[in-house]
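Memo to structure team: turn this sequence into structure tokens by end of day. - J.P.
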Amino acid sequence: MEEQLYRRLAPEESGELRLQPQDLEKAKTFVHAFLKRSMPKMKDEAIQHMLTRKAVVLEHYPKKKTKQKRKKTKGFTAKQRRELRLFEIEPEQQKYAIFLPLHELWKQYIRDLCHGLKPDAQPHMIQSKLLKADLHGAIVTVTKSKCPSYVGITGIILQEFKHVFKIITKEDKLKVVPKLNNVFSLELDGFISYIYGSKFLLRASERSAKKFKLKGTIDL
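Reply from structure team:
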């Protein structure tokens, strides 16, 4: 085996490869040095033992691909939203008539959600759907409140936040009504539903996943 490993190249082969012929000792030294760099740290006897028994596949360590971290798109902070006035309704847009089409869309949305609001529909089923429904566009009335000045306010819900409703009245006045300590009523196709604001302190997106208890307190 050593004779094959260290044999001299024929003149025509070395000429084609443009190699200078070396003597046997130099070739042997080169092969041992190459194996020592390429093989695992082992003694010469162990390397020789491996070479006499089987073919050895030299290890190849590919470069690890570095994963490029995707930059997450950051939204606006609450402070930036306030500075940009993203949720403010301009005074010239605070008109009740402008939002009547929104109310019509909301009525159709609720009818589809409750399968037509048929007279034989179960009230508790409709109530449970309304509690999770989007209320933007609904006409609500404050029926009870610990603050008497809120009682009787009626209008279309333009915006719902965690703690307040923004309502536009028929007098084209934008009212900010807190949910806490207030009871709201809404009527659609003869069905009247009551919303206890103190139990409704959630954002619209959070209510869709909220499980409301059917039996709850009626305290303000």
